Amino acid sequence: MSFAAMMLVAFGVDALLGWPQRVFQAVGHPVTWLGRLIGWLDRRLNDGGRPACLILKGGATVLIVLAAALIPALILQAALPQGWAGVVMGGFLAWPLVAARALHDHVAAVARPLAQGDMAEARRAVSMIVGRDPAQLDQAGIARAALESLAENTSDGVVAPLFWGAVAGLPGIAVYKAINTMDSMIGHRSERHEYFGKIAARLDDLVNLIPARLTGLIFAIVSSARKQAMRIMLRDARRHRSPNAGWPEAAMAGALGIRLSGPRIYGTRIADEPWLNAGAKDPVPRDLRRGLALYRRAMVLGAATLAPVAWFWG
């Protein structure tokens, strides 16, 4: 069975339908199911103590969540019929774990009011996709936050799930989403999760090594400023606090001719991050539209890349 073809089906269904609100209200979403399990384990096991003990408890949490994602995926994949019927059925099962349309819609929801000068609505919309304080963001700050989210989540929400799904089918995409969800919930560096989430964070860094760099390369290829996007990505990606997020973000900064990252405010904490493509201009509302257009071209190239792989291995 061609796992690449399965992922192509999942990507196509997501591009057409997204994850309808009516379906979400009726049954939720696999990521929210995993999120409830992670939250429950966090409350039960992350109860203080020595750092080594918290790391071990965090490791136990990782194993439990991975098992909860992997075992059903293995069972479902084993039950799939052979041939194209199995590919289509598997693609529909993988569909909820690809977030291409949702990502585009969330960023477009920021771009529209920002272009109209509706700062209140733009701040509300950007607060749905970033963790920084929206009240502290001016027009450039909102555009920058949305573009950074678009770049990073192209890797985390689209390219990486499709990559691991193409490698290992339903188990690959399910395990990846479990790891990524754990990282978003317990993998950040905070007083509560500094040690408990350490294994989840390092595991997320590992599984995103290839997809993040592949995403940056795709952005550069579909850019009208290919050489500049590639040059900025290779020069600045390692300056980012994340070993992976800097690759798609730096490529997008170079492709659009803007600067990204830099200092930002999270609640009462100021994170003094280095700039990507320092010396370039701050983004304006039009650049957010340009970023979305770059994203759409990247999605077309991603599908065009999956298609021959699916045909060759089909």
Which key features would you list for this structure?
4 strands; two-stranded antiparallel ribbon
Structure, described:
The protein has helices at residues 3-17, 21-27, 30-45, 51-79, 84-94, 100-115, 119-126, 139-186, 198-207, 209-222, 226-236, 246-256, 285-313; strands at residues 260-261, 264-266, 269-271, 275-276. The protein is mainly α and 314 residues long. The chain has one domain (3-307). The strands form two sheets. Strands 1-4 form a two-stranded antiparallel sheet. It has a two-stranded antiparallel ribbon with strand order 2-3.
Outline the secondary-structure elements:
Blueprint lengths: L2 H15 L3 H7 L2 H16 L5 H29 L4 H11 L5 H16 L3 H8 L12 H48 L11 H10 L1 H14 L3 H11 L9 H11 L3 E2 L2 E3 L2 E3 L3 E2 L8 H29 L1
Antiparallel strand pairs: 1-4, 2-3
Helix pairs in contact: 1-5, 1-8, 1-13, 3-4, 3-8, 4-8, 6-7, 6-8, 6-13, 7-8, 8-9, 8-10, 8-12, 8-13, 10-11, 10-12, 10-13, 11-12
Q: Flag low-confidence runs.
A: none
Number of domain modules? 1
Strand line-up in the sheet with most strands? 1-4
**What is the element string, with H for helices and E for strands?**
HHHHHHHHHHHHEEEEH
Mean pLDDT: 94
Main pleated sheet: 2 strands, antiparallel
Radius of gyration: 19 Å
- Judged by helices, strands and strand pairing, the structural class is mainly alpha
Q: What sort of overall outline do the alpha carbons produce when their principal axes are compared?
A: globular
Work out the helix count: 13
The proportion of strand residues reads under 5%
Q: What share of residues is helical? A: over 70%
Q: Gap between N and C termini, in Å?
A: 6 Å
Strand elements, count: 4
